[in-house]
Amino acid sequence: MQIVVPETITAVVNTGDDFELHGLYIAPDLDIVTCTLAGLIDQVQGWGIVGDTAECMEWLGKLGGPTWFKLGDRDLALHIRRTALLRSGWTLSAVADSFRQSLGVTIRILPMSDTPVPTHIITSVGEMHFEEYFVQRRAADEVLAVRSVGIAEARPAPGVLEAIVEAEAILLAPSNPIVSIGPIIGIPGVRAALRETSAPIVAVSPIVGGAAIKGPAVPLMRASGVEPTALGIAGHYADFLDVLVIDTVDAALAPAIEALGVRAVVTDTIMHGAAEKAALARVALAAARAV
Amino acid sequence: MQIVVPETITAVVNTGDDFELHGLYIAPDLDIVTCTLAGLIDQVQGWGIVGDTAECMEWLGKLGGPTWFKLGDRDLALHIRRTALLRSGWTLSAVADSFRQSLGVTIRILPMSDTPVPTHIITSVGEMHFEEYFVQRRAADEVLAVRSVGIAEARPAPGVLEAIVEAEAILLAPSNPIVSIGPIIGIPGVRAALRETSAPIVAVSPIVGGAAIKGPAVPLMRASGVEPTALGIAGHYADFLDVLVIDTVDAALAPAIEALGVRAVVTDTIMHGAAEKAALARVALAAARAV
After folding, report:
1. A81–B99 CB contact, under 8 Å
2. Residues B224, B206: one domain?
3. d(C-alpha A262, C-alpha A58), whole Å
4. Full-model pTM
5. What is the distance between the alpha carbons of residues B57 and A48, in angstroms, rounded to a whole number?
6. Contacts of residue A249, Cβ cutoff 8 Å, sequence gap at least 6
7. Based on the domain organization, do B268 and B163 belong to the same domain?
């Protein structure tokens, strides 16, 4: 259910979740985006490759390796090949571009940066990588703060700033504002480019009725001083955002959002399938065109 | 069909075949020995883990990775875990010991050295790693010479010299004398220990009727100046060998072998199953005890 020509789209992807396990460079968000666009994603679990097996993982466990982060056999090919290419001197951007081409994706995929910027969660039991907090410990620890290690020295990957400046429209997905969108807009130069671009910028609120559609957005927003509401989202992005698409259950927040200088568009934002995803994308694009 | 208590056996294993592919440290001989002793080897192909699948390999190929060296999904767990442990500072010996324990092997397994000593084959089309010559190019090139890179500076792994000196008996398997046994006895100190040990040393000839049981032993022996016969084997090991077990088809070579100071024991040496393997091991052990 294509509503825009794929070749004209650039996806800028968070790499704050990237980490090393089994000596392999794992890039969860790049892989989820690439495999989703390739039609390969396991729709049930929301990550991994459909029909994948877990023979290698089982044997890594037999050999005493960590097993808390599940890696499918097909999935592992991406991590093994990416790690080998990175060690031989490729940039993460070059690997991401090679993979999307190998898997038949025509949308351009850019990591936010070629420099590692791991997201750490500071909890009441200590500081840990986001994936340890989220997957290994099931987001059970009290969150005190979130930090992006090394972000002040990171540079946007080649093409990221140009994509923002030259865009016809920019869409922020209804993703976690702290650990998914946050690292991208925290890379030096990105937020300034968002402020300066002439492209309309539309976000879809990931918070509906004060709760996250999925994942631990609420405690992470609270720990970052962002109110876990659609209004909090608007305030967090207000310096560059033109339009916030919010759910009908949050319609009462529209005046407060608009008081921040952000236009509020109210619609059904909870997507259950391709048709609802396409409808929401159409609303967001129409809102961009109306700016 | 156990004929010796496993806990009393030490296997010293060639690592000249070890190489890096996909950024992974692959140790073909250590894995074949460990998986064979664990009862996990794929008996049909002679390497790899029985029942293994190749999902990851297929996807490595899709992503543009090399596919000439087949790696099963279970198999890959050994390479991934070994590489991660080596990178974190473990020695190859420590990894080998951990793996054999994880897989329930009670025979002690020692790599010949913790230092990489890759076997290179110098062919008429250039110098290449043994696995490139053997697997990628199917041993089709003319062999000019064989060299073990870095062997002069390598040291035996911890326990190797002690195992030789303290052994009750030493058995050289009917393996390729140039690229399987050769690197082990070429590690500085090993050949001297074999000469000095009071243990009887018995080899089984890998050459029967002037041909190798399997693999490219004949051209590799020729290129190394070793006559590809059981007599050539005896001459190659004569400085330390007490007994050479030869096949009945080579019985006429016995007097020439014994003239080198090596006792020749003539028997059926071609093993088709566990019973024949046990019978040959019994002959070799009896020959050792008779020294």
Report:
1. no
2. yes
3. 50
4. 0.93
5. 16
6. A208, A209
7. yes
CB B110 within 8 A of CB B164: no
What is the C-alpha to C-alpha distance for residues B106 and B202, in angstroms, rounded to an integer? 23
Categorise residue B103: left if φ over 0, alpha if ψ from -120 to 50, beta otherwise: alpha
A284 sits in which H/E element: helix A274-290
From chain B, the residues in CB contact with A53 under 8 A are 53, 55, 73
Q: How many domains does chain A have?
A: 3
Same domain? For B177 and B210 the reply is: yes
List of residues 6+ apart from A99 with CB closer than 8 A:
A30, A34, A78, A81, A82, B63
Same domain, A87 and A39: yes
Positive/negative CA dihedral, A171, A177, A180, A183? positive
CATH classification of the domain holding A260: 3.40.50.10680
Interface of A with B (CB under 8 A): 22-24, 49, 52-53, 55-60, 62-65, 72-74, 76-78, 80-81, 83-84, 87-88, 98-99, 102-103
Q: Which domain holds residue B141?
A: 119-152
Torsion, Cα A215 A216 A218 A224, to 10 degrees, reads: -130
Q: Using an 8 Å CB-CB cutoff, list chain B residues near A98.
A: 63-64
What's the angle, vertex CA B251, arms to CA B248 and CA B252, rounded to 5? 150
- CATH assignment of the domain containing A76: 1.10.8.240
Tell whether A129 and A207 lie within a shared domain.
no
Cβ-Cβ contacts under 8 Å, B76 against chain A: 56, 59, 76, 80
Which segments of B74-163 are extended strands (E)?
Answer: 108-111, 119-123, 126-129, 143-148
Say what the pLDDT of residue A44 is.
Answer: 87
Of A134, A157, A107, A79, the closest CA to residue A5 belongs to A107
Strand partners, A10: A108
B192 and B100 co-located in one domain: no
Residues A134, A247 within the same domain: no
From first to last of its 291 residues, chain B has per-residue pLDDT tens of 678 899 999 999 999 999 999 999 999 999 999 999 999 999 888 889 999 999 999 999 999 999 999 999 999 999 999 999 999 999 999 999 999 999 999 999 999 999 999 999 999 999 999 999 999 999 999 999 999 999 999 999 999 999 999 999 999 999 999 999 999 999 999 999 999 999 999 999 999 999 998 889 999 999 999 999 999 999 999 999 999 999 999 999 999 999 999 999 999 999 888 899 999 999 999 999 999
